[in-house]
Every structure is written in structure tokens, then in C-alpha cells.
């Protein structure tokens, strides 16, 4: 593997820490709750690695930078972290932000283990420097489309904001459903207030409305308007991107936020390792950990295993992606090359379509398995 000119990031022998850069959305307009869970998972795993002796006696030091859902800010953070001599990058939740970070990491020759972002085209060209734990968007959203088809929905309205991520999701849904007789009707939330959106859904005769929008707004306002519109009493709302996963959703919407199916990247039952990590994360977060927190924990577990076996040299880390075999909280993690995916990919984390139970909003019901 040829290494582009960059700070060496070479393994140090003076007993200092192994520095890892972490990209996390911690302020608005980033999805702050997702960032908090991701960081909790990363920090927990770092603490456990260090408590067990670190990396050949050297502790991991997590150098955290807030991306605030801003691609330019993320790219600048990658440059800064590279100059600081981090061995690798981890984290990021927002796909468009992760794409900017991955492009910069690839250019610098800095390994990046992406925790949560799902956009298929994380880099424009295939790269050896980037690996990913989260399933590619085409994988998860095709499973969601299969759920919609199986549930008998053939006219599906999509309330969408402008974004590469949302546009990609709508295209995946359309490509899967159109050959099966389904129609995807895109509605621009910039042009339609929630009440006008409801009128359009009624006029289009849709039986499902998908929320391809940010959280909390405009998602919460749309849900409130739909729930109060008697004409839409029978419509199914869905949120494939996972907005209902987090406790803030239930707090803001209560029972109105239930029965809205979304994608969740957790197995039906956690392994003993997953159950142990869940217990600690629950205590750390003072609430049930989301699948994003597990992604953070698994990220550090993988990287620590690579660091122990290959050292902290950047090129050697990147060369290790296809050799990874680590027991994570959600199954055995290994990376491979998947057609159409430009990075090393775990294929695949468990994927479920779930919703919050109207009888108990804190309980998740599995309604479809990929």
C-alpha cells in the first residue's frame, strides 16, 4: 500500500498514549442525542481497554472533536487530528459529514473506522483507508422497503428535506418498490408546512408517510399534525432513519410517537457481552442505550484489537481491515469488499424494523427482520 505524504503517525515507544481522533455531533444542528450515545459507547470501550492494560501497556487517549453536522467542520477536524498525530479516526453519525471526513482521511492516508454513517458512497473511489461498522444505506433501506411491500403499502408519500442522504434513501425505496407495483411520492417539506403536507398526503391517496427529515424539527411537527388530522387516522407513518430510537422522541411525542416503524441495528437478543455492555451504558447514560451507543463500543473494540496486533502505524492499521475478526456487542465483526460499496464493510450487522409499543412507549416491538 502506498502512503500519501502526511504526518507519520508512527508508533511511539516512549510509553505515551495512543491517540485516537473521534468525530461526534455534540451541538446543533447535529443530532446531539445520537452524538451523546455514540460518544458514551466510544468512551466506555476506551476505559475498558485501558483498565485491561491498554495497548501493550500504553493507554488509548480519545481526542474528541464536535462536527455539529457540518461537513466542512469535520474535514477541518480531520486535518487538525492528523497534525496532532492520531493513529486513526473513529466515529461520526451523520452520513454527509462522514463522507467529507472519509474523503479527507483518504487523501491524508489516515485510517478511519466509521461507526454509524450509512451512505453507500462514503468515498467517491474505492479506498483502503476507511472501514465501516454500520450497514450501508442500500442494505437497511431495502429491508425497510421489503417491510412496506409486505405490509401492503403501494402508494407511499415521502416527506423529505434536501440532502444527499435523504435523496439516496428515496431512490433506494423507489428502485425496490417500483418493479413491485409501488409508487413513491416525494413531498418537499421546504415548500409545505405540516398542515399543507397533510392535505397533499390525502390528495395523493397515500397509505404510508415516511419522515425523511431532521429531528426534532420538522419531524415532531409533522407527526403532531398527522396525528390530529382525522382524514389520516388510518395512515402508517414511518421513519427509516431511526428518529424514534432515542428517548427524546418519546419525551416530545409520547404516545403520538409510537407505532412509527424504523430501522434498528440490534439483534433480537444480545449476547452475554452485549448484555454486559448494555448494563454499563444504561448506567452511564441514565437511560436505555440506543444502537448508536453499541456502534461506538464496537468501534473501539475493533480498533483496539488492530492496534494490539499491528501497532499504531497508520499504514499497518489500514492494511489490517480485511484481517479483523472481533466479537462485538452485536455479533462477530469482519470486513469485506461489497459490490457498490467503496469502503471496507462489516456485512452485516443485524437489521430489524421496529416501533415503539403504543401500550408501553419505552418498549420496542420487532415487526420485520432483514
Give a written overview of the molecule:
It is a single chain. By secondary structure, this protein is α/β, with parallel strands linked by helices. Helices cover 38% and strands 20% of the residues. The protein has eleven helices and 16 strands. The protein has helices spanning 32-51, 71-83, 95-108, 137-150, 164-177, 194-204, 219-227, 247-253, 272-285, 291-310, 314-319; strands at 18-24, 60-66, 88-91, 112-114, 130-132, 155-160, 183-188, 208-212, 236-238, 262-264, 326-328, 331-333, 335-336, 344-346, 352-357, 360-369. The strands form four sheets. A seven-stranded mixed beta sheet has the order 2-1-3-4-5-14-13, sandwiched between helices. Strand 1, helix 1 (32-51) and strand 2 form a beta-alpha-beta unit. Helix 1 packs across helix 9, helix 4 (137-150) crosses helix 5 (164-177) and helix 6 (194-204) packs across helix 7. The longest helix has 20 residues, at 32-51. It is globular, with a radius of gyration of 21 Å. 50% of the residues are buried.
What is the approximate shape? globular
- Indicate the mean pLDDT: 95
Number of helices: 11
Helix content: 25-40%
What is the terminal separation in angstroms? 36 Å
Largest sheet: 7 strands, mixed
Query: Strand fraction band?
Result: 15-25%
Low-confidence stretches: 1-13
- Widest sheet, order of strands: 2-1-3-4-5-14-13
| Sheet/helix structural class | alpha/beta
Radius of gyration: 21 Å
- Please write the string of helix (H) and strand (E) elements: EHEHEHEEHEHEHEHEHEHHHEEEEEE
Number of strands: 16
Amino acid at each position: 500500500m502506498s502512503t500519501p505524504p502526511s504526518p507519520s503517525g508512527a508508533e511511539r515507544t516512549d510509553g505515551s498514549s495512543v491517540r485516537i481522533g473521534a468525530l461526534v455531533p455534540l451541538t446543533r444542528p447535529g443530532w446531539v442525542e445520537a452524538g451523546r450515545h455514540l460518544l458514551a459507547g466510544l468512551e466506555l470501550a476506551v476505559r475498558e481497554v485501558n483498565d485491561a492494560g491498554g495497548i501493550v501497556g500504553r493507554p488509548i487517549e480519545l481526542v474528541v472533536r464536535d462536527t455539529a453536522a457540518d461537513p466542512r467542520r469535520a474535514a477541518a477536524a480531520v486535518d487538525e487530528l492528523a497534525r496532532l498525530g492520531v493513529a486513526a479516526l473513529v466515529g461520526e453519525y451523520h452520513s454527509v459529514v462522514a463522507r467529507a471526513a472519509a474523503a479527507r482521511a483518504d487523501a491524508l492516508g489516515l485510517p478511519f473506522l466509521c461507526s454509524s454513517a450509512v451512505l453507500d458512497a462514503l468515498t467517491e473511489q474505492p479506498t483502503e483507508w476507511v472501514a465501516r461498522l454500520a450497514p450501508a444505506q442500500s442494505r437497511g433501506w431495502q429491508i425497510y422497503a421489503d417491510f412496506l411491500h409486505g405490509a401492503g403499502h403501494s402508494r407511499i408519500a415521502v416527506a423529505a428535506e434536501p440532502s444527499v442522504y435523504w435523496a439516496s434513501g428515496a431512490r433506494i425505496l423507489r428502485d425496490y418498490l417500483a418493479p413491485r407495483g409501488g409508487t413513491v411520492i416525494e413531498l418537499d417539506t421546504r415548500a409545505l408546512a405540516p398542515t399543507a403536507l397533510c392535505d397533499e398526503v390525502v390528495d395523493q391517496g397515500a397509505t404510508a408517510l415516511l419522515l425523511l427529515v431532521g429531528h426534532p424539527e420538522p419531524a415532531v411537527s409533522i407527526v403532531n399534525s398527522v396525528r390530529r388530522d382525522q382524514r389520516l387516522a388510518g395512515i402508517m407513518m414511518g421513519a427509516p432513519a431511526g428518529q424514534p430510537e432515542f428517548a427524546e422522541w418519546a419525551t416530545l411525542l409520547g404516545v403520538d410517537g409510537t407505532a412509527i416503524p424504523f430501522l434498528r441495528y440490534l439483534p433480537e437478543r444480545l449476547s452475554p457481552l452485549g448484555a454486559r455492555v448494555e448494563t454499563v451504558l444504561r448506567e452511564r447514560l441514565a437511560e436505555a442505550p440506543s444502537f448508536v451507543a453499541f456502534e461506538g463500543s464496537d468501534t473501539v473494540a475493533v480498533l483496539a484489537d488492530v492496534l494490539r496486533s499491528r501497532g499504531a502505524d497508520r499504514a499497518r492499521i489500514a492494511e489490517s481491515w480485511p484481517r479483523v475478526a472481533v466479537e462485538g456487542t452485536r455479533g462477530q465483526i469482519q470486513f469485506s469488499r461489497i459490490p457498490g460499496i467503496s469502503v471496507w464493510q462489516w456485512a452485516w450487522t443485524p437489521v430489524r424494523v421496529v416501533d415503539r409499543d403504543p401500550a408501553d412507549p419505552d418498549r420496542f416491538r420487532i415487526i420485520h427482520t432483514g
